[in-house]
Specification:
Layout lengths: L11 H33 E3 L21 E3 L5 E5 L5 E3 L3 H4 L7 E3 L4 E2 L15 E3 L21 E3 L6 E2 L14 E3 L4 E2 L2 E2 L2 H4 L6 E3 L5 E3 L13 E3 L4 E5 L12 E3 L4 E3 L14 E3 L6 E2 L12 E3 L4 E4 L13 E3 L4 E5 L12 E3 L4 E4 L13 E3 L4 E2 L15 E3 L21 E3 L6 E2 L13 E3 L4 E5 L12 E3 L4 E5 L9 E3 L4 E5 L12 E3 L4 E3 L10 E7 L15 E4 L2 E4 L2 E7 L7 E6 L6 E6 L2
Parallel strand pairs: 3-5, 4-6, 5-7, 7-8, 8-10, 9-11, 10-13, 12-14, 13-15, 14-16, 15-17, 16-18, 17-19, 19-21, 20-22, 21-23, 22-24, 23-25, 24-26, 25-27, 26-28, 27-29, 29-30, 30-32, 31-33, 32-34, 33-35, 34-36, 35-37, 36-38, 37-39, 38-43, 40-43
Antiparallel strand pairs: 1-4, 2-3, 41-42, 44-45
Protein name: Leucine-rich repeat-containing N-terminal plant-type domain-containing protein
Pfam family, one: LRRNT_2
Keywords: ATP-binding, Glycoprotein, Leucine-rich repeat, Membrane, Nucleotide-binding, Repeat, Signal, Transmembrane, Transmembrane helix
Length: about 600
């Protein structure tokens, strides 16, 4: 560092010049040192193709203009912000922490590896540290107790393991955000050291092996806006002191072993927008939640909740995601459910709901997922569901629904899965199914659908699975030309021949047309890779010849692997003597074999 000799202070003008000289000499000593450290950092890390992280890092440029670098007024480096730059390598913390003015060190969302060295303790002026979302696998977190000025600490998803030095947080009284989630730390109870940090607004400790109960002292952290403790081994009841956290915006406790009822104090969390306690063993009703009118996402699935959905849920104007499946909820659904908010998903499946489907779930034109299956819902599919143009998945199977499917629903343009199976729905499949260009799975078995399959079903070109068994369909067998793998239309009233075009369905794995009045068994002689499941329609039981996946037919060292089960319904008189050909896909050789029934 430059040295300034003693000077006679009795000569003011020259003394002022002397001070300026010393100041700039000091700066000129700092900047080259900082530049050398940055150049060492550049040489230690590698960038992927296309990354521009270090393109400006040339000694001919001012280091304060380097990408990700911020300097203070005297030209010293105060911030290194290189998050999301596709960087790999080992951080040279021994040199980085020689930057005497460094306040922010951010390398989140990269591919850094190796240890986080103890040299990190030398970055004593750090206010912000982000090494999260990296690959420090197999290494423990270092003691960072000297970073007493730290306000933001992000080490989440960094691959750390072993014991976390919780006591090193004790001196960080100004810590505002603590994010350590998704690391393989050794199991430990909720750290008491965290409970002393009363300035915390953000705690993310999900999936880091915390066990035991949530301490009552959590209620002292009244500045919290986010508390995430999901995917741990936590037990006991949610403490009533949670109700003291009146600033909470997000509370995630899912996938633990919490029991008991929701604490009454939850009603105080009027700012809460995201609440997830799914995959626990919480019981009782949902009445305490009726006051949380600012909820955007409410996820309670896989618990033991009972009682009815509060009517107020239908009035929540911000509720976008409601997931209540796999509980013991009863009664009718609020009839204005989803009518106010710009709903994205409603899932109430696997409960005991009764009554009609709420009619206005598509009113806002935003819903993508509607799951109401496995309940006891009655009535018809609401007619205005034809306006559900954004719907991707619509599952109302295993209910007590009746009536017809409103015509426009068959042709919803974005629908991928449509499941109305195991109801009492009647009427035809209408020709507007040709507009269902995104439809992958059509499941309507065990209903009272009638009429003929419309020719337009072939225009639903994305169909992979069609399940229409156990209905009242009639007319000729129509097989779509889409890349279908699963086609089941057994137990209907179809007539005519099995069409030759079945031979062109190279992706077909299951073909079930049993218990119809079909003929044309010879159409099947050209189908590759099939095993056979034969049903004699007029017999009082099924006569089955079947080769499973584990059995092979052998001939001259060649194995013909049976990959597919083919279901065929034929008249008993056709079964006297059947000859089938199975084409070996490897040798393209046709082996014939015969059997008699």
């Amino acid at each position: 560092m430059p040295f300034c000799p003693p000077y006679d202070t009795s000569r003011p003008p020259l003394y002022l010049f002397y001070l300026l000289f010393c100041f700039f000499s000091l700066i000129s000593g700092i900047q080259p040192a900082d530049l050398q450290i940055l150049m060492k950092l550049k040489s230690a890390l590698q960038t992927s193709d296309g990354s521009s992280a270090f393109k400006s890092w040339e000694s001919s440029n001012s280091m304060c203009n380097f990408t990700g670098i911020t300097c203070n007024s005297d030209g010293s480096v105060t911030e290194i912000e290189l998050s999301r730059q596709n960087l790999t390598g080992v951080l040279p913390l021994d040199s980085i922490c020689q930057l005497q003015s460094l306040e922010k060190l951010s390398f989140g969302f990269n591919n850094l590896h190796g240890p986080i060295m103890d040299d990190l303790n030398n970055c004593v002026k750090l206010l912000y540290l982000d090494l999260g979302n990296n690959l420090f696998s197999g290494w423990s977190a270092p003691d960072i107790s000297s970073l007493s000025q730290l306000q933001y600490l992000y080490l989440n998803r960094s691959g750390l393991s072993g014991s976390f030095p919780w006591k090193s947080l004790q001196n960080m009284t100004g810590l505002v955000r603590l994010s350590l989630g998704h690391n393989l730390f050794n199991p430990s109870p909720f750290p008491n050291d965290v409970l002393q940090l009363t300035n915390l607004t953000w705690i993310h400790l999900s999936n880091c092996s915390i066990q035991g109960t949530i301490p009552a002292e959590i209620g002292n952290l009244k500045e919290l806006i986010n508390l995430e403790l999901s995917n741990n081994n936590m037990t006991g009841e949610i403490p009533v002191e949670i109700g003291n956290l009146v600033n909470l915006w997000q509370l995630h406790l899912f996938n633990n072993s919490f029991t008991g009822k929701l604490p009454v104090g939850l009603r105080n969390l009027s700012k809460l927008e995201r609440f997830d306690v799914s995959m626990n063993s919480i019981e009782g009703d949902l009445s305490v939640l009726r006051f949380l009118s600012n909820l955007v996402s409410l996820e309670l699935f896989e618990n033991k909740f009972s009682g009815q959905i509060p009517a107020e849920f239908g009035e929540f104007k911000k509720l976008v995601n409601l997931t209540l499946n796999k509980n013991n909820l009863t009664g009718p659904l609020p009839q204005n459910l989803g009518s106010w908010a710009r709903v994205d998903k409603i899932s109430v499946s696997y409960n005991f709901f009764t009554g009609p489907i709420p009619p206005d779930m598509c009113k806002q034109g935003t819903i993508k997922g509607l799951y109401m299956h496995h309940n006891s819902l009655t009535g018809e599919i609401p007619a205005n569901f034809v306006n559900c143009s954004t719907l991707l998945e619509f599952r109302i199977n295993d209910n007590l629904l009746s009536g017809t499917v409103p015509a426009g629903i068959w042709g919803l343009p974005n629908l991928r899965i449509f499941d109305i199976s195991f109801n009492s729905i009647e009427g035809p499949i209408t020709s507007d199914i040709k507009h269902a260009k995104s439809l992958v799975a059509l499941r309507a078995e065990n209903n009272r659908l009638s009429g003929e399959l419309p020719l337009e079903i072939s225009e639903a070109t994305s169909l992979v699975s069609i399940l229409l068994s156990d209905n009242l369909l009639q007319g000729k067998l129509l097989i779509p030309t889409s890349p279908i793998t699963n086609f089941r239309i057994s137990d209907n009233r179809l007539t005519g021949e099995i069409p030759y075009m079945i031979c062109n369905l190279s992706f077909l794995r299951i073909f079930d047309v049993s218990n119809n009045n079909l003929s044309g068994l010879h159409s099947l002689l050209r189908v590759r890779g099939m095993s056979l499941y034969l049903t004699a329609k007029h017999w009082n039981h099924r006569m089955v010849w079947r080769v499973g996946n584990a059995h092979c037919l052998k001939s001259e060292d060649t194995q013909v692997q049976i990959l597919l089960i083919l279901f065929i319904s034929v008249q008993a008189e056709l079964l006297d003597h059947v000859s089938l050909s199975i084409l070996n896909d490897n040798l393209y050789t046709c082996w014939k074999w015969q059997f008699a029934l």
